[in-house]
Amino acid sequence: MTALATLPHSLIARVARSLSAKLTLFYAVLIAGVVLLVLVGAKTGISGYTERMIRGEMASGAVVFDRVTTMRYAQLGDASQVLAADFGFRSAAATGDAPTVASALDSLRGRLHLDQAFYVSTDGAVVGFRGTLRAGEAEALRRVLDEGSTRGILQLGEQRFNAAAAPINAPVTIGWVVFANALDAGELARLARMSAIDLSPQIVAAAGLTADERSGRIVERFVDGQHLLIQASPIDSFRRDQPQMLLLRYSVTRAMGHYAPLLWLLLACGLLGIAVAVAGSWILARRIVRPIAALDAAARRVAQGEYAQVRVDTRDELGTLAESFNRMVNDVGERERQITHMALHDGLTGLANRTLLREYLSQTAARSAAGRQRALFCLDLDNFKVVNDTLGHPVGDALLCRVAARLLAFAGEGFVARLGGDEFALVIDDAGRSLDRAATELLRIIGEPCVIDGHRIVPGTSIGIAIIDGPDCDPVTLTKNADLALYRAKHDGRGGYRFFEPAMDAEARKRRQMELDLHDAIAGGQLSLMFQPLFNLSEARVSAFEALLRWNHPTRGLVSPADFIPLAEDTGLILPIGEWVIREACRAARHWPDHVRIAVNVSPVQFRSPGLSAVILQALAESGLAPHRLELEITESLFIDNPAATLSSLHGLRDLGVRVALDDFGTGYSSLSYLRAFPFDKIKIDRSFIMDLLSSDGATAIIRSITTLAEALGMETTAEGVENAGQLDILREQGCSHIQGFYFSKPISEAHVAAMLHDDAPPAMRLAS
Amino acid sequence: MKYLHLLALAGISLGTPAAAGTVAVHVVDAQGRAVPDAVVTILPAAGLPTGPIRFPWGVKMLQKDIAFNPHVLIVPVGATVAFPNADKVRHHVYSFSKPAKFELKLFGRDETRSYTFRTAGAVALGCNIHDAMSGFIKVVDTPFANKTGASGDARIAGVTAGRATLTVWHPRMRAKDNEAQFALNVPSAGETAQQIRLALR
Hints:
Number of helices of chain B: 1
Keywords (chain B): Signal
Transmembrane segments (chain A): 25-46, 262-285
Largest sheet of chain B: 5 strands, mixed
Distance between the termini of chain B: 54 Å
Low-confidence stretches of chain B: 1-17
Helix content of chain B: under 10%
Domain HAMP (chain A): 286-337
Oligomer: heterodimer
Signal peptide (chain B): 1-20
Number of domains of chain B: 2
CATH architecture of the largest domain in chain B: Sandwich
Number of strands of chain A: 25
Protein name (chain B): Plastocyanin
CATH topology of the largest domain in chain A: TIM Barrel
């Protein structure tokens, strides 16, 4: 039951999915429709023809019957008239000589082969009738004869006759002779044979027919499953009170029966036609569908990323489609290769990019090392930004290409990638030379001077190296490690190389954590300022405090500025921190006596930021501190990168009215030209000179020369890191105007500053002695 | 005067032909058309007057133009009717009628045959040579007889007054013996008009 129920569904689903089945079904239905039409048409045509034929035969049948009977009546009438005109017969009839009349009729009947020949007198007596008349028939005969009836179908009893009559005039009508022939089955059969088809003629009383039939039209009747056509034609009736009709009938069903073999043959041919159409359309559909299926399969394979081609073996539309498909697959493949190349390569140098490097690294790491030395070199051009900024980007790009070419030449079979900007990577897979030698060689090759666009450029690079030592090295870690090593190499001084060490990783992580913590530090109030006094030796009083930043980390406790300031500079956090320091320092200093200044260190990053002036103005405005009481301490390193810009900024600050001190004087790139270029308010002599004072005479000489120079230029001098009386004595002796250091006071909190200012006895006492 | 009047009354009651009236008959067919050649005879209940019967139209049946002329001839019983032939052809007059069966075989132009009719009744005349020829002789036994003219009218004067039987005969009348009878009162003086409608073949 369920199997039967599901069968049509599965069939429908199959047909819906298959083009072949659809086409086949379509043509099958189409041809079936045509066959049906032909059959219906044939049937309709045949039955229409048959009916017309029958109607025609009926019309002519009635005419034939009419003619034949007319002929019969003429014969009978002629014979009766001959008798009626006979003088002897008239005499016998007129004189009522019945036996003579009867005998005369009898002999005539025999001679003319008549069925009936009788005489009816005007008074209703009938002579010579064979058989017996029913009651009233004699009178009825007399009446119709009297009314002038001379011919027609005469029904007497159950029998019907063709009858003709002639009056006996002697000279008035005294009676009639009636000659009649029985209209029996045989006679009707003879009539029937005159038509092409057997219309089974019947004579019936009109009274027995329906009004519809009596109308003379051909009527249809369905009797016992037979379709009959019936036509009743009026015929002459001897007795007008008993009208008679000729009834013709023919069975259309029977006539159609003759055509049944033809229709069956048509049906058989139709079914055969359907079978041929189904087979033909199936074969055709298969031939159409097979290439489509092949295209479909190929399209699926292409969708899965395979390369697929369809065999073209026809020249029709499907062949063209297959050709187009193949062309499309090729074009798509070509474009895919281009896109892949673009995705994996650097547009400028044509080197692999970071993505391809990562892929290459994972493949390389997975391969067995087999005693070979493999490493990832990360390179970063030194001072590339300067080239870009001063010589323009086209030169920068050309330099990158030149470097790329050198890297490729160096790498040989190795892998070279550009990671972006001026960063390159190199995968060395070399059994021959050691990595140290390779790095040294690479530094040399990159560092060879070159001329680009007329500019002589000496490229420099730093290299970070991460060793690929097993399948566990994942590309991301490798790249990160090499980057860390590079960072360290740069940090340690440009133009060198460093191997990655696990400690770098830990440090980097620590730095990262600290960076995060530093973010929170400003908002969390973990930063605070300590103040170290600067003592004016000539005035013997505190002249200023240097604000020193402290970070009280919630878990690590106090963090040294040496640890977090570089980090803040690297990350840019130095800007908000520096701003906070300036404002906080100004705020603290506002209640101090007017001769006490506040000194704040300004980082190079902060110095170069365009917002510094605004920050200072705002801090001064908020605190109400006089500008000259704010002293900004800057380092010499500012002059190295861009002396002109630095000078301009310094003059800008000076215009604000604030004081500017040169910090850590004597270290690094100290140049006397700075002192000539800008009139610093103060020079702070680096603590390294102070520490050497007691052990080295040279140090004393340097101090003296500095103080002498400063005095000549009208600048104050401050010695930092003064820790004992010996140092103080020398400094005082050498003309240093201010001192700062533990000997006088270590950095103190804001509260202690107030105390010191109110009651400066202890340190002052010591200094005074 | 008063006496005379009484006599007149007695005359009626006794059937004495003390008075006579005129009977005018108009014969029409079923369609109301005038019927000529209808023979009207009256038989008074009081009886017929004695004496020989004579009609003014004579007793001659002429054959002229292949026809009997007149078509209908009224003759009294016992009359001998002459049959003169005025045609160039010969005729063979016959009658199969009961009152008079006779044959006047082949007689030519200007020949006259005669036949005496001794029985009252209608006699149909034919010619054995010319089937179309038809004539009738009505043999009557009453003096009160006449036939309708072309207008269908027949007048009989001097008919004995009183109850009488009027008989109308016509060769084509659809009735037994081709005649119909009616009762009527003949006025003692003046005229009675009768309209009679016949069914003809």
